[in-house]
Design a protein that fits this description.
The protein is an alpha+beta fold and 174 residues long. The chain has six helices and seven strands. It has a seven-stranded antiparallel sheet. Strand 4 and strand 5 form a beta hairpin. Helix 3 crosses helix 6. The longest helix has 21 residues. It is globular. The termini are far apart.
Length: 174
C-alpha cells in the first residue's frame, strides 16, 4: 500500500492542474459523461453527499483509501481498480472542491504510480428548473507503460468507469 502522508507532497504527474473545471488543454483524451438524476433538493443533497464522501467511487466498485472521509483541497486518496492481485493502485490528490447552493463536487489529479496522467472531476448540478444532473470529466494521457500499450482499450475502460460513476450517483439518490 502506498504511504498517504508521502503523497501529500508528491508532485502531480501532469502540468495542467485544474484543467477539468476550467478548460480543455490540447494533448489529453477527454472522457465526459452526464446523467439526469432526478429533481429537487433531496436528490441534489443525496448526490452531493455521495460525491463528497467518496461513496460514489465505492459504489462504482472501486476501493478508496484516503486521509479524509470528506473531500477537501489537498486530500489524498488511493483508488483501487480491479480485484485481488490484479488490483491497480491509482494515487491522486484533490485539486479543487466545488460547494455552493447549486453545484457540489471536486477534481483530483494523478500522482506518481497512477496508470494515467491527468485529472478527473465529479460534480452534481441543480439546474434552474430543479433538475439535478451528475457529470464526470476526465482529461488523461497514458501514465505508465501498460496504459500506453493498452492504447484504445484504456479509453474504453475510462468510458466504462464514467458510466459506473454516474450509475453509482443514480443509486445514491434512489
Amino acid at each position: 500500500m502506498l504511504d498517504l502522508a508521502a503523497l501529500t507532497e508528491a508532485p502531480y504527474t501532469y502540468t495542467d492542474v485544474g484543467a477539468t473545471l476550467q478548460r480543455r488543454p490540447p494533448g489529453y483524451h477527454l472522457t465526459h459523461g452526464r446523467r439526469v438524476l432526478g429533481h429537487g433538493d433531496e436528490v441534489y443533497d443525496a448526490a452531493a453527499r455521495a460525491i463528497i464522501t467518496w461513496r460514489m467511487h465505492r459504489d462504482a466498485g472501486l476501493t478508496v483509501t484516503t486521509d479524509a472521509e470528506t473531500v477537501h483541497p489537498g486530500a489524498v486518496a488511493v483508488v483501487g481498480i480491479g480485484v485481488g492481485r490484479l488490483r491497480i493502485q491509482a494515487p491522486c490528490r484533490v485539486v479543487e472542491v466545488l460547494w455552493s447552493h447549486d453545484v457540489a463536487g471536486f477534481a483530483y489529479g494523478t500522482l506518481p504510480g497512477h496508470p494515467e496522467a491527468g485529472e478527473e472531476a465529479f460534480w452534481v448540478r441543480r439546474e434552474p428548473n430543479g433538475t439535478v444532473v451528475g457529470e464526470v470529466v476526465a482529461l488523461s494521457q497514458p501514465g505508465r507503460w501498460y496504459t500506453r500499450v493498452a492504447g484504445p482499450f484504456g479509453r474504453v475502460v475510462q468510458r466504462l468507469a464514467c458510466r459506473r460513476y454516474l450509475a453509482a450517483l443514480a443509486k445514491a439518490v434512489g
